[in-house]
Amino acid sequence: MVDVLVIGGGNAALCAALMAREAGASVMLLEGSPKVWRGGNSQHTRNLRCMHDAPQDVLVDAYPEEEYWQDLLKVTGGLTNEKLARIAIRASSSCRDWMRSHGVHFQPPLSGALHVARTNAFFMGGGKALVNAYFRSAERLGVKIRYDAQVTDIELENGAFVAAHLAEREVDGQRLPAERIEARACVLAAGGFESNREWLREAWGQNERGEWPSDNFLIRGTRFNTGVLLRRMLDLGADAVGDPTQAHMVAIDARAPLYDGGICTRIDCVSLGVVVNRDGERFYDEGEDFWPKRYAIWGRLVAGQPNQQAYSIIDQQALGRFMPPVFPGTTARTLPELARLLNLPQTQFVKTIEDYNNACHVGTFDHTTLDDCHTEGLTPAKTHWARPLTKPPYYAYPLKPGVTFTYLGLATDETAAVHFDGKASPNLFVAGEMMAGNVLGKGYTAGIGMAIGTAFGRIAGVQAALCAGFGLSPVNSELQHAAV
Questions:
Q1: Could you say which cofactors this protein requires (predicted)?
Q2: Which of 191, 255, 402, 471 has the fewest CB within 10 Å, making it most exposed?
Q3: Mind spelling out the 3-state secondary structure of the chain?
Q4: Is 90 a domain residue?
Q5: Do 411 and 298 have their domain in common?
Q6: What is the per-residue pLDDT across 12-37, written as a single tens digit (0 to 9) for each?
């Protein structure tokens, strides 16, 4: 029997495993993917949103708790557990030294179009480098890591964890028997259900046009998050939180691969131009706020359009002001030509652009601030960065919804315990995307997912070690006190 069993292989799972091992517990980590795909969605991340009251190593200026909280409140529309959200926010201010102790490196402050030099700390080498560093540290500390080990069932007794079950499976051409793994405590951190096409269909259903919207979703994250463990926990009576249709859903290039496209498939020029649907019509304010705060609403917006398709349209003026897409845009010298190339209704498309151009009230354009360039008398309005699209060539990028992770998850508290009928399990904990819906009822802001996963992964690891009978190191004691 192992002291602590961690199920999952992303940031939250690794944080839990490392904290439990540092406390002295024996730890086994079960990663459902092959080794080459380890890390879950964390391999596609880039940064961590961090609270800080003054300039702090790789972060400039200040980003105090209340501003962080207000940013989260705005994107979630109030659908968040304030107590748990503030735990994640506060923990984000002090976790970087611990991360560095496990081999994570941060790059110097960024400035410019991403607007995040003040709020987000970027990982040197991105998320893949982060998870590789954590895996190396876990191996060095003696965490037993198993790959191709997707848990299909959890054995409980009165809400307490007893054992995890691995089904019979084939790995590298070898048939492996079913297994039962006992542990004194367990941390669930196996992600959501974004790669389960049947569950997405069940959640989203059909729209008024008779379409099944989820059939057109691309999965920006890992292909291995099928929600098997989440579904089993819900079937076993674990308390749920969140809406199954809510997710970190981004407007990505429609030409992206079905799975694991990651950050490079995102289209970041939305705020610098206009977005039209298949009918050649605009449908939302492209300049509502800075892109890192609003980019994750656009996947859901596109999901509501005919055929779940849209196009981001810019002209030459926008070039050099956003992260270049991985796929080239469709280019044309005239708007009618662009409409023909995109197979959009030419008359309506040209009218949409001309109406927008005529409505632009151009003041002092500045894509790094909430400037005074806006439209007047146009619905929907564009409230910032509104400049007429009049300088060819024109560029168009096809958009589809790209799901990173789903928000339906398990209800928890400040100790990261799984709850059954409102009662906390004595030895079963949850972290990462399996509980992020407690904080993210809807919406997203860049780097908050990593903040939630790091905070509650570490808390879950501490709690699991305590259940297994292991005391607290100074760093664990500090974290435990902060959480409770």
A1: FAD
A2: 471
A3: CEEEEEECCCHHHHHHHHHHHHCCCCEEEECCCCHHHCCHHHHHCCEEECCECCCECCECCCECHHHHHHHHHHHHCCCCCHHHHHHHHHHCCCCHHHHHHCCCCECCCCCCCCCCCCCEEEECCHHHHHHHHHHHHHHHHCCEEECCCCEEEEEEECCEEEEEEECCEEECCEEECCEEEEEEEEEECCCCCCCCHHHHHHHHCCCCCCCCHHHHCEECCCCCCCCHHHHHHHHCCECEECCCCCEEEEEEECCCCCECCHHHHECCCHHHCEEEECCCCECCCCCCCCHHHHHHHHHHHHHCCHHHCEEEEECHHHCCCCCCCCCCCEEECCHHHHHHHHCCCHHHHHHHHHHHHHHEECCCCCCCCCCCCEECCCCCCCCCCCCCCCCCCEEEEEEEEEEEEECCEECCCCCCEEEECCEEEEEEEECHHHCHHHCCCCCCCCCHHHHHHHHHHHHHHHHHHHHCCCCCCHHHHHHHHHHC
A4: yes
A5: no
A6: 999 999 999 999 999 999 999 999 99
Give residue-wise pLDDT tens across range 61-106: 999 999 999 999 999 999 999 999 999 999 999 999 999 999 999 9
Q: Are residues 389 and 446 in the same domain?
A: no
**The last residue of a domain, from among 373, 402, 431:** 402
Tell me what pLDDT residue 113 has: 39
Look up the pTM and report it: 0.93
